[in-house]
Amino acid sequence: KEVDRRRSELAVELAEAVGPVGSGEAVISEVPVSNPQEIIGIAKSVQAERPGSAVVLGGGTPGEGRAGLVALIPGDAYGGISAADLIAELASLIGGGGGGSDELAQAGGGRPEGVSEALVTARARLESA
After folding, report:
1. What are phi and psi of 84, to 5 degrees?
2. To the nearest 10°, the Cα dihedral for 61, 105, 42, 30?
3. How confident is the model at residue 76, as a pLDDT?
4. Element spanning 67, H or E
5. Does residue 1 surpass a pLDDT of 80?
6. Rounded distance, CA 63 to CA 28, Å?
7. 104-109 and 96-100 strand pairing
8. Which of 7, 80, 93, 99 has the most CB atoms less than 10 A away?
9. C-alpha pair distances (Å), 88 with each of 38, 49, 105
10. Would you state the torsion angle of the CA atoms of residues 109, 112, 113, 118, taken in this order, to the nearest 10 degrees?
């Protein structure tokens, strides 16, 4: 229960952090979770609070050598940039692989130290889209 409450609070905080990025609205942030499925849950909660916004989240657990990334990009946002294409590019930065659809994609890997660089790269891609 405490974990669910904290994740819900985190989603609200992230939704409040949504702001202009390039041609749309987005939040790009590190989260204290490395499991891509858990990150998807947070990302979907953020997007429910801020429909139409793009959400790119990443997290790592250095002690366990795990990292996860998630991109949620509405189909009409950012010139139709594909979440799957974005994640495919970012996955190598966390030493892993991933996939998904044009609107929702995820990656997992073994390089948590690459999460920050992946998020910087995601911001650059969205800013130039």
Report:
1. -65, -40
2. 40
3. 85
4. strand 66-72
5. no
6. 23
7. antiparallel
8. 93
9. 19, 26, 9
10. 60
